[in-house]
Amino acid sequence: KKDFSKLTTTKDGQLLLEKAAHDQVETVWERFEAQQPHCGFCEMGLSCRICAMGPCRIDPFGEGPSRGACGADADIIVARNLGRMVAAGAAAHSDHGRDLVEVLAKVAQGKAPGYKIGSPEKLRTLAGVYGLEIEGKSDTELAADLAHAMEEEYGTRQERLTMVNRAPDPRLELWEKLGVMPRGVDRETSEMMHRTHMGVDNDWVRLCLHGVRNALSDGWGGSLIATEVSDILFGVPKPTKSQVNLGVLKEDQVNIIVHGHNPVVSETITLAASDPDLLALAEQKGAKGINLVGLCCTGNELLMRHGIPMAGNHLMSELTLVTGAVEMMIVDYQCIMPSLGSVATCYHTKMISTSDKAGFPQMEHREFHPEIALDLARELVKEAVENYELRNPDKVYLPVEPVEMYGGFSVEAILEALGGTPTPLIEAIKAGKIRGAVGVVGCNNPKIKHDLGHVELTKRLIENDILVLDTGCAAVANAKAGLKLPEAAELAGPGLKEICQALGIPPVLHVGSCVDNSRILVLAGALADALGVDISALPLAGAAPEWYSEKAVSIGVYFVASGVYTVLGVMPPITGSMNVVGLLTKGLDDVIGATFDVEPDPDKAALLIRAHIEKKRKELGLDA
Ligand code: SF4
Ligand code: FE2
Question: Which of 44, 46, 159, 357 is deepest in the core (most CB within 10 A)?
Fold first, then answer.
């Protein structure tokens, strides 16, 4: 019998892996195992298939070829491959942002029933950021103007993004000086694809610097637009209670899971799931209600704004279906394993894809557009309710109780908890009660025992009076471990515990989805402005203990480019070039005031982060 506790730290994960084995469902862990050993060239970033003279590979031991057919050496190949990872990640976040801007524009035109301006205040704040004429304008007029201004951010009409002006002045001056100021959201990604074409940019340093610019077009561009427009349409998150793990699925209710990233689809499903007619239909079918739950980041979006419960993170997505209790899973895009459709065939679960740009095997495609979204959402919820009758009770397995948690800590909510200004937080940092703050972010990856990296690192940090802000799959992992309850303050060091208890907040604050890492940037910028320093001077750090996706590469690069030291738990494919490794882990410090480190052991990663925070405190003269 297999020991599943080697694969995941979570009880629900272990028990459902056992059931998956029993039901003969193949999971990501088995497919991952079947890929071993990984190709050493690819692991080091030394294989290239950019053109048809290749594929080529460089021998890291110097016995075989040291150049590809075109003449590219290890540095060029590694830098090009890394650059394309950043481009793909930035494209994903930014295209998600664009979809929201499109909905905002349609709301302004009255062509998006089912959507509205959820936060007129935020609409006005953003209109201010863009310098729009606000006086005497209605919400819809302003929404039209703002959508138009944001559409321009994507193109080539300007020399720099307007949204980046929210970064502290010293950062802006530095980016300008280095020539990495992002000009257009799409432009930087497109230019990265151009530069990495055979025979264009063969200067690995410049390629890496363009990677910085490309990632900044995501963090302070596309992702920030995604976050802000989501707030405008669906409301600014406030602290809210919820529940997490597979126990949120209900044996006696119609269970619907939304999975993916963009709240555009999941918000309308939320509306439809509380439709009285559909609830009545559910009762007719013998169910006690309609239970909507989230997975991954679209789940984080709903949790942040409405307290909708969260079934799990990335590595739990197949296992949610293995419960046999899911009537329908509705997906949009990003991080949706193409295996899910085939897992669902073992149960009664209906699988629905909704985005014109995301297709999946063995799913039914029902395309969402703002004009028809609410009607389609109702149709789908109705079909899910009808599917309840087909559930086989013998196959249902829900062996755990959900864990309570709090989410919803937008920057606005954090400031409100502090009484309206960052001053109390700054005072607590100055007094050393809080040593610093760390963003623990990113995905799951079967290379790291599921959730171990996130939870152990977070525990070590809070024990040492470091406040943790988390997003994405990291946030779900920490919530499952019970760290998002005010009582978790007991696990914190004495200073952080005192502050959390005084404010009634957990020591680990759920800041949102992966695009909401932009909230961490905005908060870091506000702290830097309040202290009159650059972000790189602050006792802050980032960590992506279990990252897997290209989006996470872009996030890591924009954190570092914003002046935040960042520790990765999984090595990116760059070790084939010690020049690139040296630049990212050391050289960037002189240029941008922050670097990367790589440390899979969460205890050791915590030591690296603590040393960095103490160094920054000393430099700021905080403990003199
Ligand atoms: Fe080979 Fe150069 Fe073509 Fe890459 S770009 S596949 S290294 S010839
Ligand atoms: Fe995500």
Answer: 46
